[in-house]
Amino acid sequence: MDERVILVVDDEPFFREEAVAFLTSQSSVALEWRVEAAAGGDEALARLEKASCDVMLLDINMPGMDGMEVLRAMRDKHLLEQTYVIMLSAYGVYDNVVAAMRGGAKDFVNKSEPLDQWIVRIERGFEWQELRWRKQQVEEELRLLAREVGHDIGGTTYFVLTQRVRALAGLAKGNPEAERSIQVIEQILGRIKRLADDLGHVARALDSSEVWRWENLDLRRMMERLAQEFRYGHPTVTVAEEWGKDVPAIVGSRAQLERAFFNLLPNAGRAMPDGGTLTIRTRRADGDRVAVDIQDTGIGIPPETQEKLFRIGFSDWKNGTKGSGLGLYVARRNVDNHGGAIEVVSNPEDGSRFTVRLPIRPEGAPTVPTGSKL
């Protein structure tokens, strides 16, 4: 990891200078960190947009942009994901603690506390950063593994095995037992190919360095196409379409979002093996966001299963062939890549509703000319 950085943000010069002096004192320097300071929220935000810091000590009460406004701006710019924020206040009331934690802060201290007691909290922030860094390393290793394995088994290996099975099928013609064996092998090869494809989608979802092709996307048109494909594969399911009239086009990667919704729809179909109703709904969500609901009348998802749905490798279907456990993981990652979120509401009586919320324009997305290809 790079040199660890602490950013002290406070409008009171005396307190700010005292905190910086303590954190850069001889005893603190041994802990190997660099300390910087900002006199207000605007200055702190400008500093973070240039380079991240590991731990930020952020005063909650400041003129101009206060600490809570800084938190909101950091969330909008996806800076909270990489910064451990400790809120500071001279007024240690419970409401401030609750508001700060809900706003995305990781810790909260009173200015009246002795400065030497802050060290433990700061070190906790560095431990959080270490875990975040390790997680990134694991994801990168997983991406490389998924790419290599998916490419290997889905490319040459699959081609060679398929050709050999076809040759054996000719030799087995007329032998019922051999023909059944060939059918089983072909089914297994089909599963292997689907797994290879899923691994390829995992690798792309984890590749943060890849520049996606951003476009203006009409979610209604996208979902209408996917709904039509769903109908072909699930003739016993009635599809109801509810398109919000005030839903604007969004900026995003069509390939990633189509894959996300494509992975969600078959799960809804599998939850209704005897038929039912699938409702696809687009609507305007809170703020500058839109929402897509995928709601089924199927068997529902137990609460203990809901907590594991998006974990990589998790599959718990009781009424069908076990999947690869990668589809919902890819869906969540692709939505995350757009600054969005997926939530699930489910019970056995009413089925399940997956809701995808997406920003109209993700932070960092390039400007896309109006009328560009959808």
Topology:
Layout: E1 4-9, H1 13-23, H2 26-29, E2 33-38, H3 41-50, E3 55-59, H4 67-76, E4 84-89, H5 94-103, E5 107-110, H6 118-154, H7 156-172, H8 176-206, E6 214-217, H9 219-233, E7 237-243, E8 250-253, H10 254-270, E9 276-284, E10 289-296, H11 303-306, H12 327-336, E11 341-347, E12 351-359
Parallel strand pairs: 1-2, 1-3, 3-4, 4-5, 7-9
Antiparallel strand pairs: 6-8, 9-10, 10-12, 11-12
Helix pairs in contact: 3-4, 6-7, 6-8, 7-8, 8-12, 9-10, 10-12
Structural features, described:
- This protein has 374 residues and is of the alpha/beta class.
- The chain has three domains: 110 residues, Response regulator (Rossmann fold), CATH 3.40.50.2300; 73 residues; 146 residues, 2-Layer Sandwich (Heat Shock Protein 90).
- Helices cover 47% and strands 20% of the residues.
- It contains twelve helices and twelve strands.
- The strands form three sheets. Strands 2-1-3-4-5 form a five-stranded parallel β-sheet, sandwiched between helices. The protein has a five-stranded mixed β-sheet with strand order 7-9-10-12-11, covered by helices on one side. It has a two-stranded antiparallel sheet with strand order 6-8.
- Helix 6 packs antiparallel against helix 8 and helix 7 runs antiparallel to helix 8.
- The longest helix has 37 residues.
- The mean pLDDT is 81.
